[in-house]
Write a structure and sequence with these properties.
about 160 residues, Rossmann fold, five-stranded parallel β-sheet, alpha/beta, 5 strands, binds coenzyme A
């Protein structure tokens, strides 16, 4: 049986920090479902269909990655797709308490699903999608922080 994992987030935008987690998770799991989920408090910067398209392009040569969107609870997505693991990146920037809380809630809602944490890479631990957007909006260089295709799409948005 394939070992499947779910990696969810807003990915607005998907960063090299997220990419690092996905690559490392691929060394453990047979299939990763990258799911663009809804974070109720966040207003979209890149539209969700565009985020999905970008992720599909980034992983076009990696058949073990599935890209999807989901409006409901993560644990329900996991149940529907027979996924038993939720992958999360853990940064040393205050993630722990919230992550612990989410992992506990998700386990309460679906006891068959475990959360697996990856310590974020030491080169990228400080980035977040919000910070990338902020640097970008002030004209800073984001090439180190996001895949090239994401940067290009963000630049298109600026010039439109
Ligand atoms: N590298 C770089 N940045 C990272 C990162 C990494 N490895 N890991 C996380 N981040 C950033 C994210 O980009 C995000 O940045 P932002 O706040 O500026 O947008 C921030 O850290 C927080 O990430 P995350 O906790 O994954 O938030 P999110 O908004 O991307 O995703 C969901 C949250 C979608 C996973 C969560 O709301 C969810 O599960 N929703 C579905 C509904 C549900 O099941 N709710 C019950 C949960 S118990």
């Amino acid at each position: 049986m394939k070992k499947k994992a779910l990696y969810a987030g807003s990915f607005d935008p998907f960063t090299n920090g997220h990419l690092d987690i996905v690559k490392r998770a691929l060394s453990i799991f047979d299939e990763i479902y990258i799911v663009i989920a809804v974070s109720p408090s966040k207003k979209a910067f890149l539209e969700r269909p565009l985020r999905k398209e970008l992720l599909q392009k980034i992983f076009a040569d990696e058949p073990r990655i599935k890209v999807d969107t989901w409006d409901g609870l993560l644990v329900d997505y996991a149940r529907e797709n027979e996924i038993k693991s939720i992958v999360r990146g853990l940064r040393p920037t205050g993630d722990f308490e919230f992550e612990f809380q989410m992992a506990s809630m998700n386990r309460k809602l679906n006891s068959e699903c475990e959360t697996v944490f990856f310590a974020t890479g030491e080169k990228l631990y400080y980035i977040s999608s919000t910070l990338v957007r902020e640097v970008f909006n002030h004209g800073g260089d984001i090439s180190e922080f996001v895949p090239k295709i994401v940067q290009e799409e963000m630049e298109k948005k600026r010039s439109s």
